[in-house]
Amino acid sequence: MTKRFWMSILSFCLVVVLAACGQKAEAQPQPIDEKVDTCTQCHMAIKNNGYAAQYVTADGKALKFDDLGCLHKYESEHKEDKIAASFVQDSQSKEWLKLENASYVLASTVPTPMGYGVHAFKDTAASNAFVKEKGTGTVMSYTDLQKYDWKMDKGNMMPMEGMKHGQMKQNEAGQHHMQQGDMNMKTAHQ
After folding, report:
1. Secondary element (H or E) of residue 105
2. What does the pLDDT look like over 128-181, one tens digit per residue?
3. Where is the signal peptide (predicted)?
4. What is the CA radius of gyration of the chain?
5. CB 96 within 8 A of CB 107
6. What are 47-58's pLDDT values in tens digits?
7. How many CB atoms lie within 10 A of CB 62?
8. What's the confidence (pLDDT) of residue 134?
9. Distance CA 4, CA 155 (A)
């Protein structure tokens, strides 16, 4: 009986180890590097300001966005991407949240980087507090967000350090670059 007992224990351990080897690590958000990260959609610099978003593909590639609206626009234009997980920064704490777990506020008169007007929070209580503080906005769930008609309002874009939106100059190579400030950001010609 002792031999049978130990064989059962050994077999159980072997099954557990083999099962663990077959599991893939859960996709994790990648940190924002303000010196090099640009939005995959609009090619603007990404700030670690509580509005960044990203998704990680099944093969581990992180696509980063300066505004949640840019993520949704890009995702709708690239349906072939196999997304392992999507993340958004909490507008207050700047912590990464899974897109499906966050609570949202549509407050189109409160600026966001690209003027989409959607702000993310860790929970509904934080969303309600934001609406109360700002005196405007509608609390939305992840399901509501999927039905939202994403529209950019250029009048409610956050100003970038050292420049105003629209102040871009084209160089001889057809690339846009900042005219003012100490930023040396380039964007693809659109």
Report:
1. strand 103-106
2. 999 999 999 999 999 999 999 999 999 999 987 644 444 443 334 444 443 333
3. 1-27
4. 22
5. no
6. 999 999 999 999
7. 18
8. 96
9. 75
